[in-house]
Amino acid sequence: MLHLTLRQLKVFESVARHLSYSRAADELHLTQPAVSMQIKQLEDNIGLPLLEQLGKRTHLTEAGRELYQYSRSIAQQLSDMEVALDELKGMERGKLNISVVTTANYFAPHLLAKFCQRYQGVTVSLNVSNREAVLKQLADNLIDLAIMGQPPENLDIDSESFMENPLVVVAPPDHPLCKERFIPVKRLAKEIFLVRESGSGTRSAMERFFAAHKVAINKGMETDTTEAIKQAVQAGMGLGIMSLHTVELELETSRLKILNVQGFPIVRYWYVVNRKNKRLSSVANAFREFLLTEAEKLMLESKK
Amino acid sequence: MLHLTLRQLKVFESVARHLSYSRAADELHLTQPAVSMQIKQLEDNIGLPLLEQLGKRTHLTEAGRELYQYSRSIAQQLSDMEVALDELKGMERGKLNISVVTTANYFAPHLLAKFCQRYQGVTVSLNVSNREAVLKQLADNLIDLAIMGQPPENLDIDSESFMENPLVVVAPPDHPLCKERFIPVKRLAKEIFLVRESGSGTRSAMERFFAAHKVAINKGMETDTTEAIKQAVQAGMGLGIMSLHTVELELETSRLKILNVQGFPIVRYWYVVNRKNKRLSSVANAFREFLLTEAEKLMLESKK
DNA sequence: ATATGATATAAGCATAACCTTATTATACAT
DNA sequence: ATGTATAATAAGGTTATGCTTATATCATAT
């Protein structure tokens, strides 16, 4: 079993390049005997002479020439490796693995775009799933970070809110309530609500709200995408409750209106979530900081 | 400056492959803390976490995945290198650099062929030059071995004879002396001799011989190849003195005859020569031994 | 709660690695 | 012959490497 040292290879490489022990010693800031010893050890390890002294000149043996090729190649690899790791250390390179819940898909790409713009060279893998799937990915350590509206209670999880997530009641523009203000919550009992599937964060927030106000509402169609609800509301099938962030386009183009109901918007928060104790890559860490410090501001700006 | 150890890489490779410190410890016949420490040192050297513990499972970080690629590649190279050097150690591979003087070209290829046949995988570089050029190549350490009829006096040179080198007098088959036996040396004074250039080993051996017998001979054409002399002798321009080994074909086909002169053949020797202190490669060493032990026998066999 | 499986940490020890200075050996140039 | 350049060898000392055993920690399965 060959027990060589990187040090030995390195010293050998220098000697082979200079064809001189003394020059190599100079280059490596060593004394000449130190170099002699390293070479001797290397030769002993390998069991072949690598260099030969003929007269004043030092020559490589055939084995030496062979080893020289390998040692240069290995040195190159180590150097490449160092560069690669240095890049990872900084922000020049790196991959951000992130999952977001369906609703967050309306703003997360925008934030990611900003982030990537700032840190060229960072690549992003964005996965959009429902809350349950995102939690599983967290548990399986498949992602660095997640964005969701309702972090799990799990002790194994770190979460921090970074942006408000106002839930609003949306209606088609021709809905009678659109003209009213300070609509009492009880008034909504007469309406039909199109809702997300149970298990959805939005759905449970909604239910908690109405339960707190002791109002029973009528549920119409139940679906697992916010998009479907928006379409249905536009078609006059009922009202919807959803994150303000998901309907900005429809508001701008007056396809939907927000009802001015008392107690609304329900203020929830967006959370950035990761497994506790997870050693975040520098990229993941940077994105987390980015969310905490700049996301809210950026979203406000983009509304203008 | 990255100061990693091959040991660290090796241990890391094992951990990364098993995704378990304990399994790696088993594989390497170490205790688990020993593995932990190697990994820790590696991480400290690099400045990045390579592995992360989440719950019960051990995962690679991005940096870990990157390093894993490199460490496998480096391990592969080291393994290749070991194979290559082992081959050199044995006779499975290797290169023999040899130069022979012009005259030796009549038998050296035959011996080299035998040698190569025995050691498949050995490659040979054969150079044929005059004595002076061969000596220069020795001095410049461009060759492992040389074959010549007259080794230099130089103290820096090791030489050993391995085969007789009989010099004979050749004549065209129709020459009157062909029928005579025990021709006295003095009789040759009446003939014309075609000779090699001065400086040639054959030439000087010849001159020493005639000087010793106090016979002055007539020199005809002087040339620097034995081949030219053979042609000229066949053409009836005179007699020649040359190594028996160079005229075997012509004798067999009766294009030339050997004269039965008293004192002939002059017995010289072929020498295998190398720089003193040169560390011969295993191949070169093997060929040297081959010459010393088997060359003479093989040449006799080939004559039959 | 408790046990289990996995890794981290601590303390200690033998020895191997690595380098130094001083000296010797060798070949070459003057 | 003498001096110079180069590498080998010897002796000695500090450091760091690489283990081990024992113990702590932590998450999870029971």
Q: What is the secondary structure topology, with strand pairs?
A:
Two copies of one chain form a homodimer.
Chain A: H1 6-18, H2 21-27, H3 32-46, E1 51-54, E2 57-60, H4 62-89, E3 94-101, H5 108-118, E4 122-129, H6 131-139, E5 145-148, E6 157-171, E7 192-196, H7 201-212, E8 218-223, H8 226-234, E9 239-243, H9 248-252, E10 257-258, E11 266-275, H10 282-303
Parallel strand pairs in A: 3-4, 3-5, 7-8, 7-9
Antiparallel strand pairs in A: 1-2, 5-11, 6-9, 6-10, 6-11
Helix pairs in contact in A: 1-2, 1-3, 1-4, 2-3
Chain B binds a DNA duplex (30 and 30 nucleotides) through residues 5, 7, 20-22, 30-38, 40-41, 53-58, 156, 277.
Short description:
2 copies of one chain form a homodimer. In chain A, α1 (about 5-20) packs across α2, α1 packs across α3 (about 30-45) and α2 (about 20-25) crosses α3.
List its traits.
alpha/beta; homodimer; LysR_subst-bd (chains A, B); transcription (chains A, B); 304 residues; Arc Repressor Mutant, subunit A; nine-stranded mixed β-sheet; rod-shaped; D-Maltodextrin-Binding Protein, domain 2; DNA-binding; WH-like_DNA-bd_sf (chains A, B); two-stranded antiparallel ribbon
Written overview of the protein:
The structure is a homodimer of 304-residue chains. By secondary structure, the first copy, chain A, is α/β, with parallel strands linked by helices. Chain A has three domains: 6-70, Winged helix-like DNA-binding domain superfamily/Winged helix DNA-binding domain (Arc Repressor Mutant, subunit A); 91-163 and 269-302, D-Maltodextrin-Binding Protein, domain 2; 165-267, 3-Layer(aba) Sandwich (D-Maltodextrin-Binding Protein, domain 2), CATH 3.40.190.10. Chain A has helices at residues 6-18, 21-27, 32-46, 62-89, 108-118, 131-139, 201-212, 226-234, 248-252, 282-303, and strands at residues 51-54, 57-60, 94-101, 122-129, 145-148, 157-171, 192-196, 218-223, 239-243, 257-258, 266-275. In chain A, the strands form two sheets. In chain A, strands 3, 4, 5, 6, 7, 8, 9, 10 and 11 form a nine-stranded mixed sheet that branches. Chain A has a two-stranded antiparallel sheet with strand order 1-2. The longest helix of chain A is centred in the N-terminal third of the chain and has 28 residues, at 62-89. The A-B interface holds A 2, 4-6, 46-49, 52-55, 57, 59, 61-63, 66-67, 70, 73-74, 77-78, 80-82, 84-85, 88-89, 94-95, 141, 156, 275, 277-279, 281 and B 2, 4-6, 46-49, 52-55, 57, 59, 61-63, 66-67, 70, 73-74, 77-78, 80-82, 84-85, 88-89, 94-95, 141, 156, 275, 277-279, 281. Chain B binds a DNA duplex (30 and 30 nucleotides) through helix 3. Chains A, B: InterPro entries: LysR_HTH_N, LysR_subst-bd, WH-like_DNA-bd_sf, WH_DNA-bd_sf. Chains A, B: Residues 4-61 form the HTH lysR-type domain. Chains A, B: Keywords: DNA-binding, Transcription, Transcription regulation.
